[in-house]
Amino acid sequence: MRKLHLAIKYAKIQNEVSSSDGIILFPKHFHNSFYLIGKYYLEQNNLDSAITYFKKAISLNYYPKKIAQSLCYLGLAYRMQGNLYLSAEYYQRGINLMLKYGPRKSIIFHIINFTDTCNQIKTKEIALSGLYYLEKCDSIIKQDRKLELEKGPVNLSKGVLYNLDKLYDFNKASFFYKKALSSCLLAKNNKTISSCLLNLGELYLKEKNDSCLFFLEKGLEYTKISSSIYIKDVNSEIYRNISNYNARKSNFRLALSNINNSLKSSFEIPLNSKFILNDNHFEKVISRRNVILSFKGKVEILNLLYNKTRDAKYLQESIETVNTCDAFINYTIQNSTEINTKFLWRDDVSEIYNYGVLAAYNLNDYELLNSIIEKNKAFLLTQSIKENNSEVSLPYDVKQQLKTYKSSIFSLEEKSTSQKQKDSLFNIKLEFERFKDSITVLYPEHFSKRNNIQPLALENIKTNLNSKSVILSYHLDRNNNNLFGLFTSKTGNYSFKKQIDSTFYEIVENYKQLISKPFTQKSELQEFYTTSNSLYNYLFPTKESEQFIEKKNIIVIANDILQNIPFEALNTNVSDLKYFIEDHNVSYAYSASFLEFNNAIKRETSKNLAAYAPITFANQKSLEATQSEVNTIQNQIDSDLFISTNATKNNFLINSGDYKILHLATHASSSNNPAIYFSKDTLKLHELYTHKTNADLVVLSACETNLGEIKKGEGVFSLSRGFFYSGAKSVISSLWNVNDVSTSSIMKDFYTNLDHHQSKSEALNNAKRKYLKEHSLSEKSPYYWASFVLIGDTSPTYPSTSYLFYLLGFVAFVSIILFFFKKRG
């Protein structure tokens, strides 16, 4: 207590001095006091304050040992907050310093804590990193016999890592768990004994061995006699595994009781109390990944209970659980700056949303069905764009500093392979965090509502639709092998659920392969007839679904592999070939909520169209037809052309922010880091994250610009998404390697249609229909015309002048004149 008292005393002196003239007196005392206060707040589970003081301790840079310990405790605090990848970065940095400067026992303590982060991230790479450091623990223990008691926790951590799916080895996991249990029984460490029994039980449960129940119940006994503040997490995990065991034995009500006990333990709610949660409960959680697993287990059990009893109360409880989990995830990621951590949580909650969609469908509640489907689409994209737009209110120098930090981080993340580069990346991230901490205090309104992203209500979606349009929202649930459809028009809704199996995925993949190349043989065309019609029947499984879309413009919102298929090329006829595009204008959206949010953003530009065509490339084939493509566009619409060596990335970054339309006729790649090619250099996806455009329309006349890695709950990480991130209202992009000749033809007609005041959707679909009408045989293959898709806003870029508006104005003017003449008379 004396140390803590002195720590607070020095901290107060430091704060007074810093606030007056910035001079730091006695930095050695401040360094130690900040570290101790950080530890105190960590023990009180006041994570924000703990993080603040540990960062202060690091910034003083006085004692290497205290810096190392502060880094490790930051790793612990960030893990408890749910910032798992940030936790791993701080731990690795801190442990490497601890190995040089830290006490041996403290090194082992922090390495064991690091493996808890590894267990929650669950990737093979991070698990191997954990094992590497645990081997260091073995070496330390060999050098100091007084540390023999640490063997138990070290072996337990090894067992945990070998129990991960990516590194699973039953024999190794079992060996280390049992070895750890023997050591911990001798040491009479009740918390670690209960952890050993928990993990043995979980291991045997995975192997479907009924011995698991013995270990789990024995572990529960030891949790009751442990005084550790972390025992609640062991308790929670034991209840969760007992619940899984009971569910496997079809004891669903007992399974539900145990999974509720698991959640109550995590949220520190007495087991005999009612299960009601709020932000105060969310704050108390230590192992957030375990809570998500418990939520997932609960909705699975509720679904099984409904299937068994057909009692709608289980559907209602399932919806409540999904909504609670959603609130918990939003609370967890509200202050997270690590995108990988956000993806991790969105991936986890995506599986829980599947059960919410199923429950809402069974309740026949369109509003609920829409709400949960919408929650599972493009949340992070909407959040990022909202955050970017809120930066407008920040001072110029602050915005520039934010952009500089983000650019440096993205650039280093792309190429950080050497230790020196990794160190540079860590240091920049640390500086960035400090900078954001400072501007959060100065401009709290910028950060206060960035996570306040709510799905658009179904009635609002209907209000926004015109009478000729229908939204087709698809939700593919791989966990339960279901395909859901929710169709929405201005006046009504239609929904369906279709059971699917491996055949469905084979049809989708075959469809994608067939349309990505020309048909050169009659057998290929026949295969396409059949495959395309089979897929159409999955997507429109009933007469009602076909009638609902009759003579309508279609907006497709999909997830998973359905995001990368063109509906335009679906064959709607069993006996012959009739393309979907023949009866419908088709466009796409990430979600109805994102569409409404993005369309509402105010965009101002002073220039019309900028077209970029590098034509020749260093390591790619020349695209000679693109010269004609952009020249034709200029003949139709007032344009600025950037051709050949003038089509540089630098010219694009400097000039593109002030154009209504951006047209890029070039090469592109859809690798792990998608890029678009300019003369002599490339623009990477991450560079769009720090670039600002105000374009009403971006046309990516290049290959595979709508392809990329699919993230659960978010969508495809493509160049299209990057341009939306940078500010575009709508994007036209491609799904496969395009033919430059047919592309030029379609683009010519598209811009003619656009200039004639057609909507973006009409302009593109009419250009495709014209191409089909004017070509025959192999040249009619979808390969030539179906690759380009419109995502986002469909309204005209050049709306026609409303003569009715002027007529009404004239009538009003004449009426006023007559009124005054009459009054004078």
Q: How would you portray this structure in words?
A:
By secondary structure, this protein is α/β, with parallel strands linked by helices. About 60% of the residues lie in helices and about 10% in strands. It has 35 helices and 16 strands. The strands form 4 sheets. It has a 6-stranded mixed beta sheet, sandwiched between helices. It has a 5-stranded mixed beta sheet with strand order 3-2-1-4-5. Helix 10 (about 190-205) runs antiparallel to helix 11 (about 210-225). The chain is globular, with a radius of gyration of 30 Å.
| Ends apart, CA distance between termini | 96 Å
Radius of gyration: 30 Å
Largest sheet: 6 strands, mixed
Sum up the overall morphology in one term: globular
List the total number of helices.
Answer: 35
Biggest sheet, strands in spatial order? 7-6-8-12-15-16
> Low-confidence parts, pLDDT < 50 over ≥5 residues?
18-22, 803-807
Helicity range: 55-70%
Structural class per helix/strand content?
A: alpha/beta
- Overall pLDDT: 88
Task: Please state roughly what percent of the residues sit in beta strands, choosing from under 5%, 5-15%, 15-25%, 25-35%, 35-45% or over 45%.
Answer: 5-15%
Count of extended strands: 16
From the structure above, extract its key features.
35 helices; globular; 825 residues; alpha/beta
